[in-house]
Design brief:
This protein is α+β, with helices and mostly antiparallel strands and 251 residues long. The chain is built from two helices and eleven strands.
């Protein structure tokens, strides 16, 4: 650039004798200097662009790999029709509050495998119908460890399925449908009992950020029969539909 300036000064010197021509010469030199620097700047920018492009995927893929998660969902637990001797009995639906802790076990190309411990509480479900000596309210709690398979975990929308088994705890009021005391049920009047339970279900997770997920799920629970206060046959099948939020974190 300095050589070019010398040549231009040598050629334009005799022509730029007065002040106006000197100003013209300086303006011409400035323009030529600018245009000669422009290709160098473009060359530097072209060299820097591939480096920035190459570093973008690396920074995008350096996200936190969440290993644990905790979720809380709220929904509804379905009712059913128990089969007591002496008439039709109806168990209504009720509120379901579910908490779930999960630990990632394995990462596959198409899914993540989690171990989970799921707990679901139902504060009450009312009973109506006959026999009149049946309890009028049952409370339920399900604790079911299991395995969950999460499909397309890197996508915004990620479906999953799960299955497990554990224990179901029931507590029945000693007040009957008619308002008196319950009859001779499964060994005692009212009170609680525990049975085994298996659960299966599925749902969809929608990412709401790096660590938070919106979840919708459906789970089915098949267990032994609660203490209705009157003799019944068969088990109890209930399903839960709910939605909530998931918090994920790394070790």
């Amino acid at each position: 650039m300095y050589v070019t300036e010398r040549v231009i000064r040598g050629r334009l010197g005799p022509l730029c004798q007065d002040r106006s021509l000197q100003i013209c010469s300086k303006f011409t030199l400035m323009r030529l200097s600018t245009f000669s620097a422009a290709p160098a700047l473009l060359l530097i920018a072209a060299c820097m662009l591939p480096a920035q492009t190459a570093s973008a995927p690396a920074s995008a893929s350096s996200g936190i790999d969440e290993q644990q998660e905790f979720s809380v969902t709220i929904g509804s637990l379905s009712g059913t029709s128990p089969n007591p001797a002496g008439g039709p009995l109806s168990l209504g639906s009720g509120l379901a509050i579910e908490a779930d802790f999960a630990q990632k076990l394995k990462t596959l190309n198409w899914a993540n495998v989690y171990w989970e411990a799921d707990g679901l509480m139902n504060p009450f479900r009312h009973l109506s119908g006959s026999p009149a000596a049946a309890t009028n309210e049952i409370r339920s709690f399900y604790l079911t460890p299991g395995v969950r398979l999460q499909f397309t975990p890197k996508e915004v929308v990620s479906p999953w399925v799960s299955a497990g088994g554990g224990v179901a705890l029931f507590d029945a009021r000693s007040t009957s449908v008619s308002g008196g005391q319950t009859g001779a049920g499964a060994g005692k009047d009212g009170g609680g009992n525990a049975t085994g339970v298996v659960d299966f279900g599925g749902g969809v997770d929608i990412k709401a950020g790096k660590r938070y997920v919106i979840r919708g799920d459906v789970r089915g629970f098949y267990s032994g029969s609660p203490n209705y206060g009157v003799p019944t046959s068969g088990g109890l099948f209930s399903f839960e539909i709910g939605g909530g939020i998931v918090w994920r974190w790394s070790k």
